[in-house]
Amino acid sequence: MTIYGVALLAFCFLAGKVTGTLLGAAIGINGDVGGVGFAMLLLIFLNAWLKRRGWMDGPTTGGLLFWSSMYIPIIVAMAAVQNATAALSGGWLALIAGVAVTVAALLLVPLLSRIGRPQSTRP
Amino acid sequence: MSELITDVLVRNGLVFAFLFVGLIMLFSFWVARRVLRGLIPGVALAILLGLGLAFLGGERGIAEYPLFAGMALLGGAMLRDFAVVATAMGADLDQIRHAGPAGAVALLVGILLSFLLGTLIAWSMGYTDPVSLATIGAGACTYIVGPVTGTALGATSEVMAISIATGVVKTIATTVLTPLIARRVGLDNPHSALVFGGLLGTTSGVAAGLAATDPKLVPYGALTATFYTGLGCLLCPSVLYLLLLALAGG
């Protein structure tokens, strides 16, 4: 059933958030550290395990794929509710620092991507 | 009559948001294909359009208007994270495994780089006290790390505002610049997407930037970015602030 897939997703999501919040509390931050990451890894493992057992039928997977495909519309909505006027209120310092940091980080992507890359992908 | 219709739309805000975003997507994909002839991907155009709408509103973007209040629920952290987790269905565990170390390094380098560069720019523009410098540097990590650090160190509200603004600018810049620069920095595979997520760290920016570049890369970037804000909140007011004090000769 479709709801099984949605429920599985909800379980992974909540388990990840709880783990992230507990980790945050353990290192003294009032917040969520890596909750989404833990939830994603849990979903990957559970999905593989359930598939091996033959418990992931079409409709169940459909419940998961629906939310996965709703991702882009949700991001569009998210873009529309950003505090965009705050970006301008910080003045030149905020504009320059924000853009400079972004560009610097982007330029480091090729450098750090070399770490641990399998040889076969780059001949 | 029109008042009654508006009332129905306001009371069913989330459903109206589904319709509204659907129309934005339809329009964006039509323009991307027919007018721009594939020059800009439809997804990227839709996200840009969304950002443009955000400038029309206030603190909560277009959701400031009651008619669009449902957009805040659809585009809020809960549904965003829910959908991001669902994208893990398409992720390849082997890719994650061999990019893990690179992702971890990227997280630390990303926080250190943002903090130091943000601090340096604030210093060059006239701020000299360590608390203000650290708060603005933390804001250059994400717009959550900034106020958390500022509150911990006791920064002034003016500096806090600049710090938050810096983080918001970073999110928007990441959204806009990533698809433009992606090919040039080799951001076209899961491995570099994991590194990218760790380096940039702004969850919203990474998610939107990758979605506009190649939606298949989203789960990899999101996986590392989710650790960034937490780590930033841990490091900025403590180790990095002390580092700053040491550099200042205090």
TrEMBL record, chain A:
One of its GO terms (cellular component) is membrane. It comes from Neolewinella marina. This is Malonate transporter subunit MadL. The chain crosses the membrane at residues 34-50, 62-80, 92-112. InterPro entries: Maln_transptMadL. Pfam families: MadL. Keywords: Membrane, Transmembrane, Transmembrane helix.
From TrEMBL, chain B:
The chain crosses the membrane at residues 12-32, 38-56, 68-91, 103-124, 131-153, 159-181, 193-213, 225-248. Residues 5-246 form the Malonate/sodium symporter MadM subunit N-terminal domain. GO terms for molecular function: sodium:malonate symporter activity. Keywords: Membrane, Transmembrane, Transmembrane helix. It comes from the Bacteria. It holds the Pfam family MadM. NCBIfam families: malonate_madM. This is Malonate transporter subunit MadM. It comes from Neolewinella marina. The gene is madM.
